[in-house]
Design goal:
109 residues, 41% helix, 4 helices, four-stranded mixed β-sheet
């Protein structure tokens, strides 16, 4: 699993989305199945805009079959229907399942 922080340094939304694209390409090139993107949890400093834009972009990428699936860290819960249906859950490390970080998004490639 590759991890990329696309909200570090308080970038613009466009810069963060550009970093997302680079991270997806790098993960695919390295044949990784799972990419963790750190977007911030969205409460301060404008990171909610980055998180929202990232989720919207990932919805688009999923529809276009650029990615297979994604899940936000705090949705990792065995009782959550989104987690139950997440195609890449076997690739999420156990430590991340315990943390359930709402500032991370796991992308199944």
């Amino acid at each position: 699993m590759i991890t990329r922080d696309i909200h570090y340094g308080m970038p613009t939304v466009d810069t963060a989305l550009y970093q997302l694209d680079l991270a997806i390409k790098a993960a695919k090139n390295s044949k990784d199945k799972l990419l963790e993107v750190i977007v911030g949890h969205g409460s301060t400093g404008g990171t909610h805009k980055i998180k929202t834009a990232t989720v919207n972009k990932l919805d688009e990428y999923k529809d276009k079959k650029i990615i297979k699936d994604y899940i936000i860290g705090n949705e990792i819960d065995i009782f959550n229907i989104k987690y139950q249906n997440f195609m890449g859950k076997e690739y999420i490390p156990e430590s991340e399942k315990i943390k359930r970080n709402k500032g991370s998004i796991f992308i199944y490639l």
